[in-house]
Design a protein that fits this description.
Strand content: 15-25%
Helix content: 25-40%
Distance between the termini: 69 Å
Shape: globular
Largest sheet: 8 strands, antiparallel
Radius of gyration: 30 Å
Structural class: alpha+beta
Length: about 600
């Protein structure tokens, strides 16, 4: 039984004035219901950001409904997300939106919405700023990140599009290859169109001349064309995903025709990897889930499980074969429409059909093909780290302007292709990778990945005064102990994610940064058992993130303002004292005393 004052402490109050009467908890509804109130009585649940009206009693939640509050770790105040069943996730995603104290915004995918609701979060209106977690499908502006409070999280980094836009990705990797050499040769030669159309045409003509000389001498070129007289390029729009607008072409004229259809668009044309690694005659690529949780220090993780996506027709490089999208494109959204598509029906049977798990693929390569899968994964992880480093400088500077950098994280979908020599090639980096759960295997992998992601980044479930909009704008001041502590606790919560950077061996990437990063070096030294005092003097002088320097300027300004205010008060007191003295001689004497 609950008394009125107890209900008020729980944050529940009636729209009308309630008398001091007894209340009971309904068996079919997790909220508090009034015994003596009529069925249409509606209660409001107080929230720190807005007031949400609960549903009327005749639309109560089902008996096995979702928790009123999420499970929160009392040690750090973060929500402890739990895995659930496929039916529960779907039911939660389709259920009415009942108000909760912990909220999210966005998350249109049934999987994401279902996982959040099943763990005690409710959805807010897109314009409501009082969320704890926002899951957006598109990029965010830097101003959005700056407006976040310490207890909010958003699933994007400022300037993350430098990796997910195909033209920006190419330009970044091209710059890194020019500066650091062949360590960045994991992306085929690519041209950004239409601005690089002349270079593309010249490259094509140069290769044709080399091809002609090679054939006359009986030699092979480094880009074997097999049954074709011309090389093959893959043409893609820079902004689109899921295989939309992708074509295989054989000369720049074809690209020019496609560009002219929409001259305002931006496209890329790359050398086509014509000798992919095949399994049962079919081409495949890997979908890998990569997370960047922080830039201070840079923290890169890759989920231990992923997907291998197969084409649904046998690989064919002939003139007729290059027009078959089911032969060359591995996108699930394309191949599922083919009559040869084999849908997964059992999550445990993950090595059959048109989509395998990464674990099943690696097991097959190791046992059936005698491949050194450990070395293969090391090469892939190296590719991932170097790709992110190509955009690190711009993201670092942008995130340094954010008051609370821990509010921003990003989940990337890396698509990687293996050639016949098992060399990994980067196909593209996806913004907000697909969370569709059309098969049991999809649900198993993606739900585990999402739950471990939220547990690792830490979604606050306990409100503090800083959660309220307009407050809590004081910037975080980093210290070495604070950085190390956050890194260690993140490692404890990472679940099924492998840490790619920083690790004990991460010193090999130091040359790829535009400048030494103090907190990267701090954590790497700590992982290797070194003390803070062993850091180079140059790093000791580096104050780290830009926002620390901004903080120093703000402190200096605040000190000057306080001094100015003190002087103003002093002169005000002086004037008041002089006004009380009537005699000129007394005024002069008082002034001299002051």
């Amino acid at each position: 039984m609950f008394q009125l004052d107890q209900l008020r402490m729980l944050g529940v109050a009636s729209r009308s004035t309630l008398s001091n009467q007894n209340f009971v908890r309904s068996r079919t509804h997790p909220r508090i219901s009034c015994i003596t109130s009529p069925p249409s009585q509606v209660f409001r649940i107080r929230d720190n950001s807005r007031r949400c009206s609960s549903a009327p009693n005749n639309h109560q939640e089902p008996a096995n409904s979702w928790p009123l509050m999420p499970a929160v770790d009392p040690a750090n105040g973060y929500i402890q997300f739990q895995k659930t069943t496929y039916d529960e996730v779907l039911r939660a995603s389709r259920s009415p939106n009942y108000p909760r104290k912990t909220t999210f915004r966005g998350a249109r995918d049934p999987l994401m919405r279902g996982v959040l609701r099943a763990n005690g979060l409710s959805c807010l209106d897109p314009s409501d700023p009082g969320f704890h977690l926002e899951w957006k499908g598109n990029n965010v502006f830097l101003s959005t990140c700056k407006s976040l409070t310490v207890n909010q999280r958003i699933n994007h980094l400022p300037y993350g599009a430098l990796l997910t836009r195909k033209d920006k990705l190419v330009e970044g990797l091209r710059r890194m290859k020019h500066m650091h050499g062949d360590g960045f040769d994991f992306i085929p030669r690519t041209f950004v169109l239409p601005k690089e159309m002349p270079e593309f045409t010249a490259y094509h003509q140069e290769f044709l001349e080399k091809l002609k000389l090679a054939r006359e001498s009986g030699e092979q070129t480094d880009r074997t064309t097999k049954n074709l007289d011309d090389p093959i390029y893959i043409f893609k729009p820079a902004y689109l995903s899921r295989g939309r607008g992708v074509h295989l072409i054989t000369n720049p004229d074809d690209a020019q025709t496609l560009v002219e259809k929409d001259e305002s668009g931006i496209y890329v044309a790359s050398d086509y990897v014509q000798d992919p690694y095949l399994i049962e005659g079919k081409k495949f690529d890997l979908r890998l889930y990569v997370v960047v949780t922080n830039l201070f220090p840079l923290s890169i993780y890759m989920y231990t499980e992923g997907l291998a996506r197969f084409t649904t027709d046998d690989y064919d490089i002939s003139t007729e074969g290059i027009s078959n999208r089911y032969t060359h494109l591995t996108n699930y959204s394309i191949n599922k429409t083919n009559e040869n598509f084999v849908k997964n029906t059992d999550a445990e049977d993950d090595d059959s059909g048109s989509k395998w798990s990464l674990t099943a693929l690696l097991s097959y390569l190791k046992e059936e093909r005698k491949v050194d899968t450990d070395q293969l994964m090391d090469n892939i992880k190296d590719l991932v780290v170097k790709t992110i480093l190509s955009a690190e400088a711009r993201i670092y500077r942008a995130l340094g302007e954010v008051p609370f950098p821990e509010t921003c994280f990003e989940l990337f979908g890396f698509d990687v292709l293996l050639d016949s020599k098992l060399k990994p090639w980067l196909v593209e980096v996806n913004l907000s990778p697909s969370l569709a759960i059309e098969t049991p295997l999809d649900f198993k992998i993606k739900q585990n990945m999402i739950v471990d992601l939220f547990n690792m980044v830490g979604v606050p479930g306990i409100d503090t005064p800083q959660t309220k909009q307009g407050s809590g704008r004081i910037r975080h001041e980093f210290s070495d102990d604070n950085v190390l502590s956050r890194f260690v606790h993140e490692q404890e919560r990472r679940g099924g994610y492998d840490c790619l950077y920083p690790t004990k061996d991460s010193k090999k990437y130091a040359a790829y940064f535009e400048a030494p990063r103090r907190y990267n070096e701090l954590v790497i030294s700590w992982l290797n058992g070194k003390k803070k005092e062993s850091l180079p003097d140059a790093l000791e002088e580096d104050k780290g993130p830009i926002f620390i320097k901004v903080l120093d300027r703000e402190k200096a300004k605040a000190k000057e303002d306080a001094k100015s205010e003190m002087m103003t008060q002093m002169y005000s007191l002086m004037d008041n004292h002089l006004q009380t003295v009537t005699s000129p001689s007394k005024r002069q004497r008082a002034k001299m005393e002051i």
